[in-house]
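call fold(seq) -> tokens
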Amino acid sequence: MIAKGGFTYRRFEVLEVVSAGQSQSSGDFILGVPEGRYPEFDQATPRDWQSWQTMLREILTTDDQKRLGDELGRGLTAATQFGLLPVSDHAELIEMQPTFEGDGRKRFWVRRY
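ret:
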């Protein structure tokens, strides 16, 4: 997690289920949200896998999910999962122009695999 300039940034891997018990990564993204808008997102405390899934489904609007899917070259489905990448190696990336800006001033940097 990086907190900078009034935003909190986290990096997530996008996983698609390809068969029973197996997932495949289709890319990753950095999500920047205005500090204080989603207090749970701002917290440095680790969360369990399901909590992240639920939180991101609440934060990402339908339009955000569509744009993210378009950038990844595949539609996001109810089976799409988001894995928190516990690294903070994205400080330089967030200095660049975001791939797109979503609803509620959210910022996205997307990398397709």
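The chain has a mean pLDDT of 91.
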